[in-house]
Q: What sequence folds into this?
């Protein structure tokens, strides 16, 4: 795996009430990832970008909903989420700058 590929795997962190609760209780962090990303790539990307140790990765594929837009029908895009379990004592803070 090249570093260029690993830099593109993580799209955005998920910061919501549910993800904050999961992060505090179980030391998991939620990310939106590329549709074709594997668990191994996600683990390597998190370790490379945030300099933390990853214990496990769980992946969730969420289907896009069909929504009505005016007179027509539209569809939201499919989303792939990754819940990354950090080893004890590890922490990712999103309010700091990445160096």
A:
């Amino acid at each position: 795996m090249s570093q260029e590929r690993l830099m593109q795997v993580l799209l955005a962190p998920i910061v919501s009430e549910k993800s904050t609760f999961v992060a505090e209780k179980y030391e998991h962090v939620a990310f939106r990832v590329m549709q074709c990303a594997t668990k191994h790539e996600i683990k390597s990307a998190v370790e490379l970008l945030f300099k933390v140790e990853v214990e496990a990765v769980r992946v969730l594929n969420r289907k896009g909903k069909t929504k009505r837009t005016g007179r027509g029908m539209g569809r939201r895009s499919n989303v792939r989420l990754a819940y990354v379990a950090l080893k004890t004592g590890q922490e990712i803070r999103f309010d700091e700058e990445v160096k």
